[in-house]
Amino acid sequence: MLERHELEAFLTLSEELHFGRTAESLRVTTGRISQTIKKLERQVGAPLFERTSRNVRLTALGQQLCDTLRPAYEQIGAGLEQAAIAARGITGTLGVGFSSLWSGDLVVQAADLFRVRHPDCAVHIQEVLLGDPLGPLRSGKVDLQLTALPIDEPDIALGPVIFSEPRALMVPDVHPFAQRETISLEDLADATLLPMAGIIPDYWLDHHYPRRTPSGRNIPHGPPITYWQEVLSHVSFGQGVSVVAARGARYYTRPGVVFVPFSDAPPIEYGLLWRAGEDTARVRTFIQIIREIHPPVRRSGRP
């Protein structure tokens, strides 16, 4: 019989792939985690992790066990959370923001289900402008938002990566790139990239609008633009190009604009944010509903 602490140790280690971080997460010693995993491996009869001085990774058997146990573990946790919510009652108002139209689709879908389950709680939905991605959250206009990452701020809590989207380059239809099936990050050195302007963290801008290619070539930047509709206009009139989620081709149909997928760029990840220390019952419930509708994706090798 698998005990709860063994299950938690195994699943947490399968996420962290690091004994120290696992111990810190579960608030036990590293030795305790090591002993628990060894005991579990003896019970199974085979190694579940491959350990070296540099890294830890799941064996094929360990991955199989993880994939089998995790859904049941999360279902139990969700059931307990739903029971606790039902006991407390969910009332008041919840503000939810989104930073892209495809994020908004998921937020609206989750809000509809939230209202059915918790009719005494109102949900207000609003778009969060790319020029001020954290302003509404910090000001309290929204309590939770689904937005493009990365976000690394001390006053903002980051939840799971809910989904990711392949990147594309939005170019004028007269641009040489428009005739190609794919482009690479190196190709950005031969175009003028149009970045966003506003109250935006530098690391976010560097991630989405890099200044150098992977080989170190300079990427020309045009004047920063405040509103997304302006980006569409600038691109259509041949004043530059812009990085965007490939799905944008279905949402931003416009004459004179072509979306060309990247062959080597990492996907754009979208995750949930809320104010640190303010994960209220309303926030946790809405997050759980989003996870039901769209289970979180694996990020950097972690579930």
Automatic annotation (TrEMBL):
Protein name, per record: LysR family transcriptional regulator
Organism phylogeny: Bacteria, Bacillati, Actinomycetota, Actinomycetes, Streptosporangiales
Entries under Pfam families matching the protein: HTH_1 (PF00126), LysR_substrate (PF03466)
Domain of life: Bacteria
Keyword Transcription regulation part of the UniProt annotation: yes
InterPro entries (UniProt xref): LysR_HTH_N, LysR_subst-bd, WH-like_DNA-bd_sf, WH_DNA-bd_sf
Keyword set, alphabetical order: DNA-binding, Transcription, Transcription regulation
Listed SUPFAM superfamilies: Periplasmic binding protein-like II (SSF53850), Winged helix' DNA-binding domain (SSF46785)
Family: Belongs to the LysR transcriptional regulatory family.
